[in-house]
Design a protein that fits this description.
The chain is α/β, with parallel strands linked by helices and 256 residues long. The chain contains 9 helices and 7 strands; from the N terminus they run βαβαβαβαβαβαααβα.
Length: 256
């Protein structure tokens, strides 16, 4: 699975799954545009990894909830590296501990804008760019098992990820004539900065592992491996699908 001659844009590539994916795509031959929101140091580390793989890197801070900023991002990335062939819409924000009855409007708006509208804005800009270039391309969303499992205490996050799954299905049909593949990965518990606090707590970690038949959290590099397949020519006949990668968590959910 090689990506020579391709330009990939990975949002939220300053840590975790985004960082691992950017590095994996670079090792497969892609030049990589890296975005971040606040963690400039992490983004620069990702740049270092991409360049260590012998590929070009471009780093830009962006707020994915601002559609104008997203449009400008694609123009800047294309100017720096060439037309973007691959989009991995990974940037997101988790939440927890807030029941619907107690939910603050500003928190609801924040999560839905970051985890649903942001990926939509990125997808729209990517599709527009690919259609102007004559078609072709790979679009991959990083979702979550929260998109198809109950998420008490974090309903907006689950709502947003379910919305991403729906977007994958609808958009894949819309852009099939343009030969743009649209898929998503729904990770379970992955060891990233977003989950580190829970995994560092022995009691909470043990509770989480009881729900995972494989008995451990996933690694960002494992998600990156599946991402590489889905944006490569090996997955040309795959579109409109959400791929769950969770160590069996979904299979065990009802009895956990």
């Amino acid at each position: 699975m090689q990506l020579e001659g391709k330009v990939a844009l990975v949002t939220g590539a300053d840590s975790g799954i985004g960082q691992a994916t950017a590095e994996r795509l670079a090792k497969a031959g892609a030049d990589v545009a890296i975005t971040y929101h606040t963690d400039h140091e992490g983004a620069e580390e990702t740049r270092r990894r991409v360049e260590a793989a012998g590929r070009r890197a471009y780093v830009q801070q962006v707020d994915i909830t601002d559609p104008a900023a997203v449009t400008a991002l694609f123009a800047a990335a294309a100017e720096a590296l060439g037309p973007v062939n691959v989009l991995v819409a990974n940037a997101g924000k988790g939440m927890g501990g807030m029941k619907v009855a107690d939910m603050r409007d500003e928190k609801l708006d924040q999560i839905l804008r970051i985890d649903l509208m942001g990926p939509l804005y990125c997808a729209r800009a990517f599709v527009q760019a690919r259609q102007q270039a004559g078609g072709g391309g790979r679009l991959l969303f990083i979702g979550s098992v929260a998109g198809h499992l109950p998420t008490p205490g974090s309903a907006p996050y689950g709502m947003a990820k379910a919305g991403v799954n729906s977007l994958v299905r609808s958009l894949s049909v819309e852009v099939a004539p343009d030969r743009i593949n649209v898929n998503a990965i729904a990770p379970g518990m992955i060891e990233t900065p977003m989950t580190q606090e829970r995994l560092d707590d022995p009691e909470k970690r043990a509770e989480s592992m009881q729900a995972i038949p494989w008995g451990r959290p996933g690694r960002p590099e494992e998600i990156a491996g599946l991402a590489l397949f889905l944006v490569s020519d090996a997955a040309d006949y795959v579109t409109g699908q959400t791929w769950t990668m969770d160590g069996g968590l979904t299979m065990n959910w009802g009895g956990a």
